[in-house]
Design a protein that fits this description.
The chain is 28% helix and 28% strand. It is of the alpha+beta class. It has one domain: Aminopeptidase (3-Layer(aba) Sandwich), CATH 3.40.630. Strands 1-2-3-4 form a four-stranded mixed sheet, sandwiched between helices. The protein is globular, with a radius of gyration of 15 Å.
Length: 101
């Protein structure tokens, strides 16, 4: 049996939630109605805490406010579930640090 990738496992996790930004103008094919340009995922850890799993924006869509928009939507979604949001960022990831701070 082939190993599942992390995102497929995450999609089955009832505590994981994702916010997706798409560009419908870039969709190709009958079944691909949405072209994902950014996403953010989080898990509800307990009644008070949510953990930001990841946030990503396609390179060709960077610096257009998509990451900020996804993060704002994510924050609104989490507020109804938890009081605290935690995340981990590599010290070398200056783009991420500037987005979160």
């Amino acid at each position: 049996m082939p190993m599942q990738t992390n995102y497929k496992i995450e999609l089955k996790n009832r505590l994981a939630h994702y916010i997706v930004s798409n560009d419908e103008k870039m969709a190709v094919g009958e079944y691909d109605r949405q072209f994902i340009v950014g996403l953010a995922g989080f898990r509800i850890m307990n009644d008070e805490e949510a953990h930001l799993i990841n946030i990503a924006v396609r390179d060709s869509y960077c610096h257009r406010g998509i990451g900020q928009g996804v993060l704002i939507s994510l924050n609104l979604a989490i507020k109804s579930e938890a009081d605290i949001i935690t995340l981990e960022v590599r010290a070398s990831n200056h783009a991420a640090k500037s987005l979160y701070i």
